[in-house]
Write a structure and sequence with these properties.
Layout lengths: L1 H8 L4 H41 L2 E4 L1 H5 L10 H10 L3 E15 L4 E9 L1 H7 L6 E4 L10 E5 H6 L3 E4 L2 H9 L4 H5 L8 E2 L2 H9 L4 H15 E3 L4 E7 L5 E12 L4 H6 E5 H8 L8 E6 L5 H11 L4 E4 H4 L1 H39 L1 H9 L4 H37 L1 E2 L4 H6 L5 E2 L6 H26 L3 H6 L2
Helix pairs in contact: 1-17, 2-15, 2-17, 9-10, 15-19, 17-19
């Protein structure tokens, strides 16, 4: 009996109840969407760490972790290789050799880590070959050894040039950029710019500030290209301690969401790196492992450390402790956000229920006068508060989930602050998503907040004296 009465009571003043419900709905939608956005970013960062940088587990020489010298290769590599091929739970693995080098061209130079890979096996543990923005993944015919570099490295070496061609103009037209804006670029057509700064300066001379802000990023990406036949010379310390030099031809350019990784990574065929550095064919500095089941990561890592104590196996969480810590505590962050939102809304709920009590003083006094126990009055007010809060939060969760589903398919592009995000390893395009258990947590939180919000109004009602309440007009 108390339940239907409590439900009807919240609709006695529809306007006031709707204001509170709308406020709770908007707060819940905002909280759910922010949680979905954070979860999408976190999942993308974890995927990038595992399938681009470290794998689920990485094996290295413990001395190499302290000092990245070329001589500190993995011990017992042949035995480890056999073990990884036969060990249940391991899906793929690939070994890499690494050399600290100085990359140079006629236009610039930069420090870099040259990574020698097994070209085909690397595809099984890394999505690098999917991240190409130009060129190919070691598919060109070349007498000279080939290297895969990042766009960041190409910028540092000043081999990423910019030119507005007919093809570029056609691409801009296809992107629905206004014709009058495109026409202004005619004076820059077929001019080659060897740095981004020079190209941006030329654009600023023909476009307005608003056009630059709106269309410049698209133009820069469309007009950029790696100069054909770009050659890079790498200098490094060879296995015998001498300084060695080796030239490579750029076969492709990649771009990930981690600019620090891009800036320090270049990939070559392991056999060609061996020939230039003088290390043995079985000298590798790290082994990246992908597992069938991520839940077995600690067991397999401990097993590798036990069987091969001369090498160190580490999980991705230990290799990237900042990401690992965020992944472990992300669920807590979600509920902190929702808790802050509901705590702010609680003051509005308390105010609404107090007003409701003041309007029904005579009615509540009559109920207690005819024998309704105070505990039932308390439960009735408590249920009214819970129904009011749950109504708004459930609608908010449904709308929030719908927004996450829509944006999760298309993604949200933060290209305007792309460089800032990527400097921390976060993607500028995020695909929001949320786990179903999150909504159950919200429901529990809503009930708790409702109970706490109902205490003050309920106390106000319980302090009423039936005789005095009946005299109030």
């Amino acid at each position: 009996m108390i339940i239907p009465i409590s439900w009807k009571n919240i609709w006695r003043n529809k306007q006031r109840s709707m204001v509170v419900i709308v406020a709770i709905t908007l707060g819940t939608v905002a909280g759910v969407f922010v949680a979905g956005l954070m979860n999408g970013w976190m999942n993308q960062r974890i995927r990038d760490v595992i399938y681009m940088e470290t794998g689920h587990i990485k094996i290295q020489n413990p001395d190499y972790l302290v000092n990245e010298e070329i001589l500190y290769s993995i011990k017992e590599y042949d035995n480890i290789q056999t073990y990884l091929d036969t060990m249940p739970g391991i899906k793929h693995w690939s070994a890499r050799s690494k050399v600290m080098a100085m990359a140079s061209t006629a236009y610039g130079s930069t420090g870099i880590t040259l990574k020698g890979i097994d070209i085909e096996k690397e595809k099984e543990v890394s999505g690098l070959y999917k991240m190409l923005i130009s060129g190919t993944y070691f598919e060109n015919d070349s007498r000279m050894p080939q290297v895969l570099i990042s766009r960041k490295t190409a910028d540092n070496l000043k081999i990423r040039n910019y030119k507005i061609t007919e093809t570029v103009l056609d691409s801009l037209i296809a992107l629905d950029i206004p014709n009058e804006t495109i026409t202004k670029l005619n004076t820059l057509q077929n001019e080659r710019y060897i740095t981004r700064k020079k190209f941006e300066k030329a654009i600023s001379g023909v476009w307005s500030v608003s056009e630059i802000k709106k269309y410049a990023p698209t133009l820069i990406n469309t007009a950029s290209y790696i100069h054909p036949g770009s050659k890079i010379t790498f200098s490094f310390t060879k296995a015998n301690g001498e300084i060695g030099y080796q030239s490579y031809r750029v076969c492709g350019v990649f771009k990930t969401s981690n600019s620090a990784f891009d800036q320090m990574s270049a990939f070559v065929n392991h056999s060609e790196l061996v020939a230039g550095t003088g290390i043995s064919n079985h000298s590798f500095h790290e082994i990246s492992i992908i597992l069938n089941n991520k839940d077995s990561i600690d067991d397999i890592c401990n097993s590798l450390n036990t069987i091969y104590p001369g090498s160190t196996a580490m999980t991705w969480k230990k290799l990237q402790p900042d990401v690992g810590m965020m992944a472990d505590f992300m669920g807590v962050y979600y509920y902190i956000i929702m808790g802050i939102i509901f705590l702010a809304l609680a003051f509005g709920i308390i105010n609404t229920m107090l007003m409701s009590i003041l309007e029904r003083v005579k009615e509540l006094g009559m109920l207690m006068a005819i024998g309704m126990k105070k505990i039932k009055v308390f439960i009735m007010i408590m249920l009214e508060t819970i129904f009011l809060t749950l109504t708004g939060s459930v609608i908010g969760m449904i709308l929030g989930a719908a927004i996450i589903k829509i944006t999760g398919k298309r993604g949200i592009n933060f290209s305007g602050v792309e460089e800032g995000f990527e400097s921390f390893g976060w993607s500028a395009r995020v695909y929001p998503n949320i786990e179903i258990y999150f909504f159950f947590g919200i429901i529990v939180m809503v009930i708790i907040i409702s109970i706490l919000s109902a205490i003050i109004p309920a106390q106000k009602a319980l302090k009423l004296k039936p005789i005095e309440a009946l005299r109030i007009e």
